[in-house]
């Protein structure tokens, strides 16, 4: 049994690696920071292969699949991603394009390629890490929220296609609220709400994935907020989100 985890060098990805290792899965750990992956691999009680890749490159995503495909992968966790804060009119175009490539294009490519193999053998799990940001528009973090909307909706659509064809392959979207990781430092923000422990988030994510849940929102507080957002008129939601996002900017 083998799982491949992108963004395993930090935060949620690292904790999902620990969670799957505890369940006996051998791991393929992916990120750019090899030293971090080596440190994690040394501490885990399972076999780990390290594949260094910059997932903002479509070519490297395809290469990653080619290097991993012979290994009978059972679980794909598309976790690598990052955010960026600020008004859309002034944020860096280059950084946003890099974000779209990492948060969307890489998830799209890896999901498609691994899904092909999983359908052939009629087994496997794909966990796409979206966000509670995926349920709404996010002024002051517009591109990040939009990328997570894409991940959530793509995952839901694929899940329905698989259900209709009676496939045993399971796909799920993980939609956490704030989680204490390196995300804030990378995005240059601070949370407006208290963050969840990354280990708790990963534990819930893996448990719910194996239970077959399609959309996983860890924590009752965040579940209530997502439910409330669905009852809020479309015109009002971005106004509320703007005020929450404004408190995040340092
Ligand atoms: N923290 C939160 O509040 C929160 C909430 C909802 C959703 N999420 C989502 O959770 C996922 C994990 O984020 P995190 O909170 O754990 O943040 P994190 O601690 O900053 O971890 C991000 C991971 O993504 C990897 N990564 C980023 N860009 C990459 C690239 N171009 N190529 C390969 N790997 C790349 C990083 O590895 P290297 O830098 O070593 O490459 C790192 O392992 C993201 O998709 C994020 O959007 C986070």
Question: What attributes characterize this protein structure?
Answer:
alpha/beta, single chain, seven-stranded parallel sheet, 250 residues, Rossmann fold, binds NADP nicotinamide-adenine-dinucleotide phosphate, 9 helices
Radius of gyration: 17 Å
Count of the separate structural domains: 1
Beta strands, count: 9
Strand line-up of the largest beta sheet: 3-2-1-4-5-6-9
Structure, explained:
The structure is a single chain. The protein is of the alpha/beta class. It has a single domain (2-246), classed as Rossmann fold. The chain is 51% helix and 15% strand. It has helices at 11-22, 34-43, 58-68, 93-121, 142-164, 183-187, 198-211, 220-231, 237-248; strands at residues 2-6, 26-31, 48-52, 73-78, 125-129, 170-174, 179-180, 196-197, 215-216. A seven-stranded parallel sheet has the order 3-2-1-4-5-6-9, sandwiched between helices. Strands 7-8 form a two-stranded parallel sheet. It starts with a strand and ends with a helix. The model has no long low-confidence stretch (mean pLDDT 96). The structure holds NADP nicotinamide-adenine-dinucleotide phosphate. Residues 6-7, 9-13, 31-33, 36, 53-56, 79-82, 102, 129, 131, 176, 178-179, 181-183, 186 line the site of NADP nicotinamide-adenine-dinucleotide phosphate.
